[in-house]
Amino acid sequence: MNVQQHGGVSAQGLWRTRGYPTWFTADTATAVGVALRILAITLLGYHISGSTVTAGWIGSASMVAQQVCSVFGGTFVDRHSRRTLIIVNALAGVLCWGTVFVLLGLNLMSVPTLLVISTASSAINGFLGSATDAALKEIIAITDYPKARSLNEGRDAMVNMSGSPISGFLYGIYPWLPFLLSALAYAIAGVAATRLPKHEAPHDEAGNSFIRAFTEGWSWTFRKPLLVISVAAISVLNFGINGIQYAIQLHLASAGTNATYIGFISTGVFLSMFVGALVSSRLSTRAPVGLTTCSAFAFVCIAMLPMVFTHNYWGILISNSVACFPFPIVNALLLGFIFAKAPESMQGRVSVALTVPCNILTAFCSAAAGSLLARWGFSVAVIVFLTLMALSAIAIWVYPPIRRIPKASDWDKISL
């Protein structure tokens, strides 16, 4: 089936596209696995170490491993069966988090062991994780990308909205419980992936070596100024927003806040993002991408300001939640535009060339948040991260080619 020949479809039409329901199931199960463990790792790291700095560095070490492996993973994904790689990645999740479950049950968990397992899991996910998004383009048409990404954003918001408080609640019952359920979710993802349509492993038409294919993916991306500026701005914004998320979690954990209440911080974030995803679904084909993206960056900075002046739980919850409203809109519009314009044979490489630079700073935000909290406190940590976010918003606004990206129906009239 040549998906390039399909016209645009409605959200209901996507579910009738061969392979899409199975792909969505596998991707959703993976998202559930991540949502159930991510808060639990932070809580467990702080519990067994008693230090916000140590807990922060566990998160940062995992992120560094993921980003380093992602650099080469996109090229690997573009040269192998994406269906197979999704299955292997899911199996790794089962083994890693199943091991954490067993060790906690036997009371054998230590900081070095948690560090090794979380780092290994992140490294494997970094190397193989782009296979899921790359496989999506084998299933649906380019014109359906904005709609599909909007559905994904809504799904992610719902999963994470419930995942974090559930993770905190489960951790409060037994620390091993969220890791057991995470392993089971990865198992479901692997089983679902076995039912994806079989496609021939992607190949490089010129018979390029791995190194040449790797170089071509990165050079294609960074020869385009619009992508370079977008990546730089998103990278700084990601560092700021994720730094604040870690600062909130570690601040509340060190203050003795109930784990379930800490989880509700993420619930507020993803409830807001769910609303944003609903708006995104309506705007995905009609809103001008550039102006909407620029406005979203400014909105996030303004919404975060109240946290500079208050340590009150409810003030933090509301301010942080509202700030995250535009993220699904930016992902559906700006990233939808970029991936829709990228060649199908380079989806894995382009995905990595975008996501690794966008997240490379984020790898250190957990450690930065823990260190800032320990030395200067919550307000200073927020000011530092918010200042960086404001700089990213200014960069987006002052670059005309980004502001001028049109709505989806006019994408065929412009190039990257």
Automatic annotation (TrEMBL):
| Main location, first listed in the record | membrane
- What this protein is called in its record is Major facilitator superfamily protein
Keywords tagged on the record: Cell membrane, Membrane, Transmembrane, Transmembrane helix
Stored Gene3D superfamilies? MFS general substrate transporter like domains
* GO cellular component assignments: plasma membrane
Family matches, as InterPro entries: MFS, MFS_trans_sf
Give the originating organism.
Bifidobacterium pullorum subsp. gallinarum
Q: Which Pfam families match?
A: MFS_1
Q: Where in the cell is it found?
A: Cell membrane
Q: Where are the transmembrane segments?
A: 24-48, 54-77, 84-106, 173-193, 226-248, 260-279, 291-309, 315-340, 352-374, 380-399
Q: Name one GO molecular function term.
A: transmembrane transporter activity
Give membrane topology per the record.
Multi-pass membrane protein
